[in-house]
Amino acid sequence: MRIGLDVGSTTIKCVVLDDMNNIIYKSYQRHFSKIVESTIELLITLDKDIIKGNKCKLMISGSAGMGMAQANNIPFVQEVYATKRAIGLLDEEIDVAIELGGEDAKILFLKGNMEVRMNGSCAGGTGAFIDQMATLLHCSVDEMNEMSKNANKTYTIASRCGVFAKSDIQPLLNQGATKEDISKSIFYAVVNQTIAGLAQGRLIKGKVLYLGGPLTFISELRNAFDHSLKIKGKLPENSLYFVSMGAANLSKDEGYLQDFVKSLKSYSDTTTFSYILPLFNNNDEYDEFEKRHDNEKVDSADINTYKGNAYLGIDAGSTTIKSVLIDTKGKVLLESYKPNSGNPIPIIKEFLQNLYSNYPNIKIVGSASTGYGEDIIKNAFRLDEGLVETMAHLKAAQAFKPDVDFIIDIGGQDMKCFKIKNNTIDNIFLNEACSSGCGSFLQTFAEALGYDIKDFAKKGILADKPVDLGSRCTVFMNSSVKQAQKDGASIENISAGLSISVVKNAIYKVIRPSSIDALGKNIVVQGGTFYNDAVLRAFENELGINVVRPNIAGLMGAYGAALYVKEKGYTHSNILSLKELENFEHSVSQTNCGLCENHCQLTINRFDNGRKYISGNRCERPITKKIKSRLNMYEYKRNLLMEYKPIKGNRGKIGIPLGLNMYELLPFWHTFFTELGFEVVTSPFSNRDIYLQGQASIPSDTVCFPAKLMHGHIEELIKMNVDTIFYPCMSYNFDENKTDNNYNCPVVAYYPEVIEANMPNIEKVTFIYDYLGLHRKKEFPIKAKQMLDKYFDNINLKDVIKACKKSYEEHDKYLNKVYEKGWEMIEEARKENKPIIVLAGRPYHIDPEISHGIDQLITGFDMAVISEEVIASKVKEKIEVNVLNQWTYHGRLYDAAHYISTQDDMDLVQLVSFGCGVDAITTDECREILEANGKIYTQIKIDEITNLGACKIRLRSLFAANQR
Amino acid sequence: MTKENRVLFTKEMKKTHKILIPNMMDTHFRIMAPIFKAEGYDVELLHNSGSTVVESGLKYVHNDTCYPALLVIGQMIDALNSGKYDLDKVALLITQTGGGCRASNYIHLLRKGLEKAGYSQIPVISLNLSGLENNPGFKLTFKLLRKLLAGVVYGDCIMQLSNQIRPYEITKGETDELVSKMMNMCSDVLNSNKGYKLKEIEHYCNIIVENFNKIKIEKVDKIKVGVVGEIYVKYAPLGNNHLEDFLKSQDVEYYMPGLMGFSIFKVDNRLEDIKLYGGNLFKKIAVGFLYDYLIKLEEVLYNSIKNNSDFIPIGRFEHTKKLVEGIVGYGSKMGEGWLLTAEMLELIEIGYENIICTQPFGCLPNHINGKGMIRKIVTKNPTANIVPIDYDPSATEVNQENRIKLMLAIAQENLENNLKNKDMN
């Protein structure tokens, strides 16, 4: 008999085959990370019930089984290979198999050129991801599947990793989107992730098999695959067991199970994971620590005896809702901390109703909301004020420590840190979506391991050897933890390791202080995550100083909001009364805004008597109906580019994809080819559809979003029936004589190579992707002529020279127009006393799909938006920077930062694409230039999806800091 | 601190300071480090590793920067932290390529890191061919350059031969013993101001080949794996989680293209630039001279192995370059550029169809020439079995090894099928 064990990240699957490959036994069980123990148990059962002590063959497979198998000399086979073998046992020929597991996603192309793809270091789009999402929605995966059947629409959700998706889903939930729609959207996100991440240009067609847990249990996920791939995939019998079947089939050497069990038992005693110093050396240290923090208490008053005025603060966070009621002296009367369960409205309603009916002697005279759900709560319950959460936290922290100079707040989803100087917020650090795991990560992990978060965290406090898990994106920690488990780390040590990781993430990923002293001496820590003593201790250890953790650490936002409205001196609140609450109704509908090309998906919340609140909008237009701001260079540049329209010529159509560097070179190339008699057509500005069209042929899933979009633009041009597409490789950009070299970044420089090598449809057109150098104005016409001769007949050198001359002129003309208009806008903004935001990025950041309407978001705040090259044009000489200033576009950023640091009414907001390696250098340098001159640096990271909520926090905090 | 007032490595410092060099390729660097000694520099090759290196990197370098930068800078700062060195009498040396890749900024990231760590007094020497930064106390003279290049040749020679012999040696450990012996011979020779002229190089290469020829081997069929990738993670055990050790444990033969090809590639880029965009004739002649010299060196190494042994000699640059024609353009030069793609094709050509393409997570040029070209390579060579592996501080060994194991499982099947076919014929 042959036994195959598939030891995965969460489960063990076992199959016993007879000599005819019939399954005579199979089992599927969760191992709760007790991998070795579970395996031993399973083998003992098998030996007793099935094998009956006889000789048999055993083969282990699965990522979590590898180390165990190796150490015990048990034959091991890689799991994808095992799957392939199992498929080979089927009666029918299969073209493609898609297998999703706990943390793995795989596609096997079996026909022709056999290829196997599996996900890399990212666990997005897998079973663990779906589990995480179910946790977020407070339902089971089965329920998600059922709900999905009743969905009406799908939202775009980033599936690249769980953390990204969370930050997309949370705002949707907070804005009132239905769980039905979100469930379906999650399944489509998984599909997109699998296709984008794994197919890499190879079409999934023919006979397709669905394998693994998620695809077995979730029918709607299969439907989503069917629908997206336009196929009808098949869920085979034993779809959970293909790996173990393959392993059993591949097993070779005979042996006794007792021997394996014996070996495994002695193995489970050895530990080999790498560990760090314990949090506490002994119980006494812990007692001392507890005592110290017990003193950090807010004053409170007895609500049962209190009569009179009170102020209410509500912090509608991403996963929890916090409310605090204070009296006129600022003492806390009542506090509440609840999970928001995806919809905060009924929770607040209930809270208010209880408050009114239980304490009739209390009169709310001021109310304010803050946090993610600030707007919807404020509108729903007619609160008096709303304030950005950073301000709320500052208020609260100052109540504990007036001289506070640094606040760190780690909540469920997000991490906020700010330095305080002169009583104002000096510098803000928000976690970018990629590391926002924080508290909810700990929670999800606790649950996955079968523990309550509180018990789980406690376990870590006295751990002797905390696992060293590093400090990167928390999603990656999944596999680190897996490895530690494999190596026999105890739950205690894993728990401590995770807490330490969260802290390291906060310090080294988000705050990144130049030295620990730079943080400050008077530090207040807040947010629910700091209730976890292990996290708190890890933080103190890492910093080497003691910090203050208020006993209401999780309520500080709400407390701050209450203090804020109290300070405002309110004597009467508009908040809904008990009677109004009785009739309170809330309904949600969806529509698309038609006011501009963004077509934002609007969620319209209606409350009882026709009051409504719109969310999902990027700008204020659907609400205020105001016309677009004139002071927006992004808009101006887009309009300017639109003026380069096709002009009929005698040489046929030539297509130019509007993306990456073409955003600035279009005037040049349009003129060049038009002059030579071509009709130059360009792809339109990007949109979601364009992205999806090209998604399947992207070979590297970690390349930046602007590059990924190019695939869609090429597809778009092919659809437009062009004969030729022109998209040259360019190592060098124009030399603006202000940088040490004039390179493009490697992706901009060579992306045409990727297009040519990976897009099957490119064969339908003549694709010109030669290497060209516009920086050599003298030689360029000759080189251009040589290039043209390769593709076209009768190109005349004189004409080329003339076209070149005109093109260089047009390029200058275009830039000058931009500069002039930009400074005109700056003048105008100054006249009207409007603050000026320099939204600094690259030329392609004006693409509406890339910048997600952030420009309009800013003009919505009644500010002017200027682009980086406008400001850089004022800097005439080379400026001194601490990096090798060798990329033309990036040099402009330093110039802009340099100039802005001398201007009181200007602020720089840098747009950074995820995955942009070069910006790891530019962001630090721009920050240093600005901070050296006392300016605040703000960065917004953007991706295929952007959490505009986080953008708003950053921008509003910047404005709030400036207003002081 | 701005670029203008960076700490210079002065002539006095040459006498007083110890220069620390990060390790990338053990064989090569151990041959090359003593060369500096012969020129009057007190150098030390860094061997510190472990979690404190990564931690120092994470602490002092922007975490989104590429992994090699993080490791190299982490290794240096970790060394300074160790207390082993007199901080007023130590300098650091780092290479600077000057290309359009982020790597050209390592030196600046290093300086930023040093400042953060409180080591801003420590001079950093840029080793480059582009005239990027000068130091009065450090000169890359033509003679020093020639010696370093000789070191590259010896390193490549020893690496290529030992990798082809080790899996088949009859007496375990014999190959590695010889590697040490040959390394010592080469560094001794260079240290005594010899062994860097073409004739001498030929002589010592022949000695190396002869010595390796003497090792008794048993030729059995083993999986043959090629390793390409970003230069640091390809070679440095610190960068690739000891990939070579892992491959050894899997009982496969592996081949890593040498450093010579990369050196010629960087010079050739300048000629290609002139060809593509136009340029200065004088520059063309000067670069052409260097190019010819490197090709001659390569020829010496090639012939030495070819004429004196049955081993696969190193790939020759001009041949490797030709292989990539029509796949990716010669203008694609940042990082490892087209050479990375070309090396995969070369490996397939010489029988190493199973390829590990190593890259730092999010490596920009490798989006193009690594992952970006695999589809095209596999379409042309259907039996090619390529796995790209990402390395970064949090990528776990278990995931990386699992992916490599998949590649090896397919390789094993292909190997068995080939053997079957052979038997049938």
Give a short overview.
Chain A has 964 residues and is an alpha/beta fold.
Q: Could you characterize what this model shows?
A:
- The complex is a heterodimer of chains A (964) and B (425).
- By secondary structure, chain A is an alpha/beta fold.
- Chain A folds into 6 domains: 2-123 and 190-267, Nucleotidyltransferase, domain 5, CATH 3.30.420; 308-401 and 559-582, 2-Layer Sandwich (Nucleotidyltransferase, domain 5); 415-547, Nucleotidyltransferase, domain 5 (2-Layer Sandwich), CATH 3.30.420.40; 586-617, no CATH class; 634-813, no CATH class; 815-963, Rossmann fold.
- Chain A is built from 36 helices and 30 strands.
- In chain A, strands 1, 2, 3, 4, 5 and 10 form a 6-stranded mixed beta sheet that branches. Chain A has a 5-stranded mixed beta sheet with strand order 13-12-11-14-15, sandwiched between helices. In chain A, strands 8-7-6-9 form a 4-stranded mixed beta sheet.
- In chain A, helix 17 (453-461) packs across helix 19 and helix 34 packs parallel to helix 35 (919-932).
- Mean pLDDT of chain A is 87; it is low at 433-437.
- Chain B has 17 helices and 8 strands.
- The mean pLDDT of chain B is 91.
- In chain B, the strands form 2 sheets. In chain B, strands 2-1-3-4 form a 4-stranded parallel beta sheet. Chain B has a 4-stranded parallel beta sheet with strand order 6-5-7-8, with helices on both faces.
- With 425 residues, chain B is α/β, with parallel strands linked by helices.
- Among the domains of chain B are: 11-138, 3-Layer(aba) Sandwich (Rossmann fold), CATH 3.40.50; 221-257 and 315-424, 3-Layer(aba) Sandwich (Rossmann fold).
- In chain B, strand 3, helix 5 and strand 4 (124-127) form a beta-alpha-beta unit.
- The longest helix of chain B is centred in the last third of the chain and has 28 residues, at 281-308.
